[in-house]
UniProtKB/TrEMBL annotation:
Keyword terms, alphabetized: FAD, Flavoprotein, Oxidoreductase
A GO-annotated cellular component: membrane
Lineage, broadest ranks: Bacteria, Pseudomonadati, Pseudomonadota, Alphaproteobacteria, Rhodobacterales
GO molecular function ontology, one term from the record: D-arabinono-1,4-lactone oxidase activity
Organism in which the protein naturally occurs: Litoreibacter albidus
PANTHER family: D-ARABINONO-1,4-LACTONE OXIDASE (PTHR43762:SF1), L-GULONOLACTONE OXIDASE (PTHR43762)
Limits of the FAD-binding PCMH-type domain: 14-180
Name assigned to this protein: Decaprenylphospho-beta-D-ribofuranose 2-oxidase
Amino acid sequence: MIWNTLTYTGWGRVHSATAKVARPERTSTLAAAQSEQSAPAFGMRRSYGDSCLNDGGHALDMTRMDRLLDFDPETGILEVEAGARIGDIARRFAPDGWLPAVMPGTGFATIGGCIAHDVHGKNHHGAGSFGQHVTEITLMNGGKLQKVGPSKGAKLFRATVGGMGQTGAIVSAKIKLLPCKGDVITVTERRIENLDHFLEALDNSQSTYTVGWVDATAKGETLGRGILEEAETGYGLVPDAKRAKSVPFNAPKWALSNPVVRLFNASYFRRVPEDGRTSVKPITEFFFPLDKLLEWNRLYGKRGFHQFQCVVPITEATVLRVMLDKIGREGLASPLAVIKRMGPGRAGLMSFPMEGYTLAVDFPNRGAAEALIAELEEIAKNAGGRIYLAKDATLSPAHVRSMYPDVAKFAKLITEIDPNGAYETDQTRRLNIRSHA
């Protein structure tokens, strides 16, 4: 197997790694690579921090293993290789009345990545997490194949889902697609005046898909204002999805300065009429809105950006006000801030979701950003919440045990499976995950 030296980053581009990377195309070549050197796998590298990095080591790029292997139209179960992208699956099967049960905010996420981080979507309050719709995973550890599922090999299955690739390379999986009404989606948007109204609207929503954009620069009586989107799939004729454009260069620092962001957010809030509006769109424009702007991470400049994403219990929702107040006063937020209502669904020992509210905010990588994020992490911890490891690049190792109470079980199992730490990444080393065994 050919190993090429590659310097690569996660989507946030704050951290980078230089590693020897192999790109297998078949299970046989993956086995050959693992027999030479067991190594952590990555896909499209849409995780934001350092969870896909292995600086100074080896890594497996799984993006060439992207085939659809089998589909049962009676059950909706699709067997697919780990490198297949969730957006491609949605575009292929929605016209036939099927959609992946759970989809993250980008269609470029691979199936392996969706499993490794047990991703959630705009329907978590009803459908739960991605791993709850996985019926079987084929793993390769040290060149040997193993099939696990919710009942057969359940212990290893729960360590793999949300397990950040620490149990071996995900080769393929069987996932259960859900029936949908078609390849278009009806979206209703309405303005929400402040955080209290936002939480009430999220709690009362009966829609299958619900997501809120928050103006993270708003203060005072308008703190937490934003736009609520509620959506249902359906049939109909809509214009073709717009062709994606690319950000050709790193944006200058002033492009996301506080005055510019405040003006943009005010305009974005007012784009929805006071009495709301309803429109019909291609499904991809609702589920993956940023994918139409390729390389949008360049908008944050060459130093990259952090995303802070937490979830806090329903009973601790008041801490969101504290967080948004701190964010507004610091003036560091970008226009990308999202709030959602989450249900209890999670499938893995290290899965992020819990019943409550999740807040995600992007910050350009500037001097005060990491200090602010550390304060926000502390608030989330004290509220009984947790930080999403797919987005994390800054979390203190001291917070892991309180945020992820099953970390000791997880660490014990992966240490038994991988005693030499061949599947460790920059993130698991930074967080000292295996020390909890």
